[in-house]
Amino acid sequence: MAISIKSEKEIELMRESCRLLAMMHEELKKDIKPGISTKDINDHAEEIIASYGCVSNFLNYNGYPASICTSVNDEVVHGIPKKERILKEGDIISIDAGLIYKGYHSDAARTYAVGAIAPEHEKLIEVTKQSFFEGIKYARAGYHLHDISNAIDAYVSKFGYGIVRALVGHGIGTSMHEDPQIPNYRQWRRGPKLKPGMTLAIEPMINLGTPVVCFLDDDWTVVSEDGSYSAHYENTVLITDKEPEILTLLQGGTDV
Q1: What mean pLDDT do residues 13-22 have?
Q2: Is 24:33 a contact under the CB 8 Å cutoff?
Q3: Whole-angstrom Cα distance, residue 234 to residue 186?
Q4: Dihedrals φ, ψ of 178, to 5°?
Q5: Is the dihedral of CA 148, 150, 156, 158 positive or negative?
Q6: For the residues 118-130, what does the mean pLDDT come to?
Q7: What pLDDT shows up at residue 255?
Q8: pTM, entire model
Q9: What's the whole-number mean pLDDT along residues 208-234?
Q10: Angle between helices 8-29 and 38-51 (to 10 degrees)
Q11: Dihedral sign for Cα atoms in the order 187, 189, 190, 192
Q12: pLDDT > 90: what percent of the chain?
C-alpha cells in the first residue's frame, strides 16, 4: 500500500478543489424540495462545475453516466439522476459529488431531508453525520488508519444501525480513488500510521436496517437489501500535525 503524501503546493490545489465542491453542495442544497427531479439537480451541478472551470470526476468514471450521484431513500450510493425520479415530501436524498481542479480531485456527500421527514429518518441522517465527526477525532498524525474505522463503528453500533461493509472510504489526490481503503466498521488490525499530508475521503454509509446491500440492474445503484432507508456523509480530510482539516466544509457553511 502506497499512501501519497501531498506537498504544500498540492495541498493548496486540493484546498481549492474542495472549497469549490463545498460551494456547489451549498448551492445544490437549495434545490432539494418536493417536485424537483434528480436530473434537474444533476443539470444544475453541471452548470456550477462548468462555471468554476472544473470538470466532474464522476462523469464517465468507469462509464458512470452523470456528473453527480443522487441516491433516494433505500438507495445507498451511486443513484443515477433521472428526469422521471421526482422527489416527494418525506423522501431523503444523498448527493455525492466531486470535481477536478487543475488535476486534483475532491469528493463529498450529504444526505438531505425532502420537506418534513419521519423522525427515525431524521435521526439516521444525524447519526450518520456525527459518526464522521467521531471518526475524525482520530484523523491526525500518530494515530492509525483503523482508529478512524473503529470510532465510527463504536458510535453507530449504539443505535443498532447497519454499517455498510461492501463500500468504504479512500485516499484521494491526483486520482479520485487512491490508497488506502477506509472501512467504516471495526478492524482487528491497526492499519498504517497516519502522517501529515495524507488526504482521505472518509464516508460513513449507514442503513436503518441491514448492512447488506445489492446492485440494481443499471449496474450502479446500490440499495439496502431489506429496503430500509440509508444515509451517507462524506468529506475530504487533510491529516496535519494538529487537528484534521476538513477541506470540503466552508467556514460558516451549514453542509446539511
Answers
A1: 98
A2: no
A3: 18
A4: -120, 170
A5: negative
A6: 98
A7: 61
A8: 0.96
A9: 98
A10: 140
A11: negative
A12: 96
Cis omega before residue 204 (within 30°)? no
Contacts of 118 (CB under 8 A, 6+ apart): 90
Query: Cell 488490525 appears where?
Result: 189
Cβ pair 69, 50 in contact under 8 A = no
DSSP 3-state of 92: strand
- In the block, residue with C-alpha cell 457553511: 253
What CATH number labels 8-246?
A: 3.90.230.10
Q: Is the dihedral of CA 231, 232, 233, 239 positive or negative?
A: positive
Q: What value does the CA radius of gyration of the chain take, rounded to a whole number of Å?
A: 17
| The pLDDT of residue 252 | 54
Contact 19, 247 (CB under 8 A): yes
Q: Are 236 and 106 in contact (CB under 8 A)?
A: yes
The pLDDT score that the predictor gives to residue 200 is 98
Kindly give the residue spans of alpha helices, DSSP state H, lying in the chain: 8-29, 38-51, 119-135, 145-157
- How many residues are present in the chain? 256
User: Which helix (H) or strand (E) is 170 found in, with range?
Assistant: strand 169-171
For 78, the grid coordinates are 451511486
pLDDT exceeds cutoff 70 at 110? yes
* Contact in structure between 114 and 93 (CB atoms under 8 Å): yes
For residue range 36-57, list pLDDT tens digits in order.
999 999 999 999 999 999 999 9
